[in-house]
Amino acid sequence: MMDKNLIRKKNLAQVKALLFKNGRLFASDLVKQTNISMVTINSLLKELINDGVVQEGELTQREMGRPAIEYIFNADYSHAMLLSIQEKKPGLLIKMKVVNLKGDIQTEATIDFSEVTRDRFKAIIAEQLSRITYVDRMGVLFPGKINQGVVQSSWNTLFDGWDMNELIGSVTDLPFFIQNDAHLITIGHCIKQNISFSKTIVGIFYPQQSMPGVTLFTEGKLIEGNHSLAGEAKYLPTLISKPSPESNQDLVERLAELLPFYNAAIAPEYFIISSDGVADDLFLAAIDNNKLLKRQPNQAKIEFVSNFQECITLGLRWLVYQNTAFDLSIQ
């Protein structure tokens, strides 16, 4: 009985994933793509309809054969609240979006977070959840590194030592997920540009007048290291004693100095670079003038994040639905 239940659970997840990916399919399409019998597919579809995951469409004439019912994925089966803590000179703000499984924005807001305290953070979450009651999970993009729920390194050290699991868990019973900003921007760009998660990727997020965050991503996994501090570039010998860059030119020159180090240590297939508000041509000029990169045998492809907010949203959607039938990972 246990084996049968596990097989059915696996089949359900496969059918859900296909409908999520395609939007709408006929039962015969599902049979072809899964090699599951028509009898079982019909049983699975009935269960998914009862659960609200799938809706039954109208009888449709196909190019060949008899008319058949088209099954439509219900994008409003689940809603996620996505919170991104972002820099806004001279402080921080939180952008909030609620999206369905298709990524359609149901509501959004920008919230002042200049008062960076635990109580203010909890109050913001509690207020949004009391106002928007139909979400079933939450994701948080965070400007720092977290290990087992505790902040190890963060923007201007303001969050260091915060127990994020305890803070968020004190105001909601919803499942919630937290991840570093550079990681989610990098992953969001991969999803947007259809870059396979099997590639070896170094993502560098260098905000204006701040310190860089670095993502090390390979075979679909983030390399976190001890205390989740892998890639924390501000601790590199060339940056540890330096203040935040004072100009965009200073920022791009520092970034160009980082590339040869990670190119030698990781040998990535891609560098994905983001810095909201800094022109790509400044980065390109600094990279082109870097003599060390030209001497290194690994010649990675360099891409720039073109839509910062869209990549944040995609990264957060990946975070909250990873390892489910609604996973956005690129194979």
Radius of gyration: 22 Å
What would you give as the CATH superfamily of the largest domain?
Answer: ATPase, nucleotide binding domain
Instruction: Tell me the β content.
Output: 25-35%
Widest β-sheet, arrangement of strands: 6-5-4-7-10
Q: Supply the number of structural domains.
A: 3
**N- and C-termini, Cα separation:** 32 Å
Classify the fold: give the CATH topology of the largest domain: Nucleotidyltransferase, domain 5
- The number of helical elements comes to 10
Describe the structure.
By secondary structure, the protein is α/β, with parallel strands linked by helices. It has three domains: 2-76, Arc Repressor Mutant, subunit A (Orthogonal Bundle); 77-182, Nucleotidyltransferase, domain 5; 184-309, Nucleotidyltransferase, domain 5. It is 37% helix and 26% strand. It is built from ten helices and 15 strands. Strand 5 (91-100) and strand 6 form a beta hairpin. Helix 1 crosses helix 3 (38-51) and helix 2 crosses helix 3. The protein starts with a helix and ends in a 10-residue tail after the last helix. The mean pLDDT is 93.
Structural features:
331 residues; 5-stranded mixed beta sheet; Nucleotidyltransferase, domain 5; 26% strand; single chain; Arc Repressor Mutant, subunit A
